[in-house]
Specification:
Blueprint lengths: L6 E7 L5 H17 L3 E7 L5 E4 L14 H8 L5 E4 L10 H8 L9 H8 L1 H10 L7 E5 L6 H15 L3 E4 L9 E2 L4 H12 L4 E6 L4 E9 L5 E3 L3 E5 L6 H5 L4 E4 L6 H18 L4 E8 L5 E7 L9 H7 L5 H14 L3
Parallel strand pairs: 1-2, 1-4
Antiparallel strand pairs: 2-3, 5-8, 6-7, 6-8, 9-10, 9-11, 9-13, 11-12, 13-14
Amino acid sequence: MNHKRLRIAVLHGGPSSEHDISVWSSRGVLQTLREAGHETLAVFVDRGGRWHLTAMGDAGIAVGDGLDLLQAVADLRGKVDLCFLGFHGNYGEDGKVQAVLELAGLRYTGSGVMASALAMDKTVARRVYAGVGLPVAGAVELPTAGLRTLAGAQGAAKKLIAQLGLPVVVKVPTGGSSVGVEIPRDEAAVVASLQRLGADAGTLLCEQFVSGVEITAAVLERADGSLESLPIVEIVPKSAFFDYESKYQTGGSEEIVPARIPAEATAQAQRNGALAHRALGCAGYSRTDQILQPDGALVLLETNTLPGLTPASLLPKAAGAVGLTYGALLDRVIAAALRTDR
């Protein structure tokens, strides 16, 4: 870990579908930072959006009624050297909290406002990927206004199937950890998915289903700002795809490092991960999920700007494969944040 003793606030929780995973990740971060001698502040955001600051508390601890965001950020100013972002999902990973921290003059780990927002919105991220020549699956961006009625959803489903075939992948564009992703395999299931997922979203991203080996390519910034591509992780989910349960339940999937894929596919997947990181404007670290198809072609799925840091998470496993301990991984993330000028 970093030899200089730092005052670090670990921000986590929030009104996100990934609240629990954020708390789990941040528990390990807090423990490791404290063991390394840093002065830590647990900053827990409850599901109602209230912020709770505890100097020696564990992750996920609420204190009284808590503070609103602006009160909490004002309280952090001058008290910490760095905010370690342990958020996941559409609160804290989409650029909004980053914007508030920047306005307050607080340093934070990971990507900045624009990169976070771009990566979080899968429809926009796809356009960025395509703009730099990265491969993406065929897709349709579907406004949900016409899906409220059964007839509207049925008509949309027929058009989608004609364009993309079956099965089709239906996504809420700003979801994470595979929350808000369904893979309906017949017309009736497509109709149900469109109505269910479209109930709380303005647009759905519907993609052609791509079969193959699920892999992920993580990158870390070096001291000189260049990118280190970590070993590719192969994901073998026990369910139909790498969904929320596969990611976080014990035995939900098997992760193999390095991935059992050809050397040229490994190199290309690593190049894709680094190019996606650069194209989106990410900072510090990121992880880009991809599919290696049977013909050897790769397709990008998404880039995660705040990858999970639980014991079951993919980034720590990839780092461990090159001899980086969990503490050393956090040190790299922190060092990159301290170098970054925003």
